[in-house]
Structures are given as C-alpha cells and as structure tokens.
Amino acid sequence: MRLFVFCVLAAAGAAVLAPQPALALSGGSPAPAGDRLTRATVFITSLTPMGRSRAQVGNCTGVLIERNLVLTAGHCLADLGGPSVVVAQFFEGDGRPGPMVQVAAGAMHPDFQGRGDADNPRPELLGADLAILKLARPAPRDRRPIRIAAQPLKAAKTRSVLAGAGLSDPSDEGSSGELRLANVSAEVVTDGPTAVAFGVSGGAVCRGDSGGPVMGQGGVWGVVIAIVRRRNLCNSTIFMAVLDPKSRGFRNMLSRARKG
C-alpha cells in the first residue's frame, strides 16, 4: 500500500512537466447529468516530485465503489515515484470536474506486475492492473457508489458503456477533464487468475482515461488498462481488466484500501 503526502498545488504550478500518457475518450458522447455512472465516476490528478523543483503531472479516471473508495488502474499508482499529491474530482452536471476530495492512501492488486517484473512477465496476470484509492473523507452526499457486477464475465458479454475524462481533442493537451461516455463491445481473451477483455469503443481512447469504468448489465465489470497504439496516442481498440470481487487478490486489495 502506498501513502500519499499532500502539499499546496499552487506552489508548483509553474514547475510541472507535461502530463504523462494515460488513456482517454475522444468522440464519445457528453455524459448525461443524472446518469448513475456519471455521478460515480471521478477524475484523478497526481503531482509527483521529480527533483530540482520539477514535478510530473498525471491524469486517470476512476469510479466510486464505496463512500470513500475509488477503483482505478494499478499503473496509475505504479507510475508515482515517492510521495505524491493525489486528488479526485467528481463531475458537475455539465460534465466538467467539480467537488475535489484528497486521496489519503492507495492499495494495488497483489498480483499487479510493476516495472520490477519486466524481466519475468506473466501474461496471465495482466488483468491485475488494478488499484483502489481511499479518499480522505467520504464522497459528497449526492454521489452514490456504483456496484461491481456479481458476474463480471457474464456482464462483459452484454451491451457496455465506458466512462472517460481524458482528451476530447487528441491535438489539444488542455482538452481533458470533460466526462464522456462511449459504447464498448468486448470479448474476454484470457481466463487466468485475472482476466483481460479486448474490445472496441465507440470513441477513440487516448490520454487521461486509464482506470475508466466499463459498465454492463449488473454493474461495473471492468476498467480500461491499455490501448492498442498505431500512429498516435489514440485508438478505439482497448484492453480492459475484468473484475472479480470474489477473488483472493481483489479481496486483499479491498481490505488494505479500507484500512488505509
């Protein structure tokens, strides 16, 4: 589990690097204000010191699964080096980031393969690219956690929707932060300890949407973990981690996140 140290964001405003590549939606539809997935999705921003008064800024998407817990992609935490400032923002009715809650701690899936596993990768564990963030205080009262599908493999076969808040314009670095939805068709391609699904979204997935929730019949069944790149940072073909809330690894991650 990684603990996060908080500082004043304004003090580092002029000394940050360009955001690191993550994932996001371009071409999806604006998220409806009253949609339950809209009201449970959050925009995650991290600020990590890089030395000599410099810092790395990163964005991801996540989803509220308990009043103070947000599910996202594991590499969103693995890319943080040392103490980091991490905040989560909920979305207003216009789809733009609104109320902000600081992140107090985070726990990664115990089978997540970080950079230290590069010499001995295990394909059957690729779906363990998961993490849960613990908010410093419960989400606003008007935000309701969304349930994880009890049968995620079955839910993955149903009509699904992806939520993402990354670049709405791939050529504009300042266009992230607007929540958008896109339809997703998926097929589970691995059945190891942590399953992975391959799919095509109705919008290009680019930068800012790693960890974006994928919801089908019965609840959220997966999160976005990678895009298939061609000539740029955006594409409509993606890989998703299939959730298994009953598995040892997921229960371990959830328990550690709750304890903070």
From TrEMBL:
First and last residue of the signal peptide: 1-24
InterPro entries (alphabetical): Peptidase_S1, Peptidase_S1_PA, Peptidase_S1_PA_chymotrypsin, Peptidase_S1A, Trypsin_dom, TRYPSIN_HIS, TRYPSIN_SER
Keyword Cytoplasm belongs to the record: no
Name by which UniProt lists this protein: Peptidase S1 domain-containing protein
GO terms for MF: serine-type endopeptidase activity
Annotated source species: Methylopila turkensis
Gene Ontology BP term (one): proteolysis
SUPFAM superfamilies: Trypsin-like serine proteases (SSF50494)
Coiled coil ranges: none
